[in-house]
Write a structure and sequence with these properties.
Order of helices and strands: HHHEE
Number of domains: 2
Number of strands: 2
Number of helices: 3
Structural class: mainly alpha
Length: 94
């Protein structure tokens, strides 16, 4: 949220981002990270040859797989194309 708009973000201040995050959190359940998530993340990184900043997306995918979630709302839908069974949705598709 604080990433500049010119770099595919919203350009919010930390205070603005905190307010937005709080608003979003009130309507959701947080998924836990555990040993199963780590094992799945490690498998994904090796299987898909993930490196660099894309390991963060792989971590999200691992959490999704372990918790049986198959849709993600993201500004970078193309980053999730390599993961079968994961449907990435851009905000402009809603």
């Amino acid at each position: 949220m604080t990433r500049p708009a010119t770099r595919n973000g919203f350009g919010l201040t930390i205070a603005e981002a905190e307010k937005e995050v709080h608003s979003i959190e009130t309507g959701m359940s947080l998924l836990s990270e555990n040993e199963s998530v780590y094992g799945e993340w490690r498998r994904i990184v090796v299987e898909h040859k993930v490196s660099g900043v894309q390991v963060h997306d792989a971590r999200l995918v691992a959490i999704m797989i372990v918790h049986k979630v198959n849709h993600i709302l993201t500004l970078n839908a193309l980053d999730f194309d390599r993961y079968l069974g994961i449907t990435a949705i851009s905000p402009n598709q809603i």
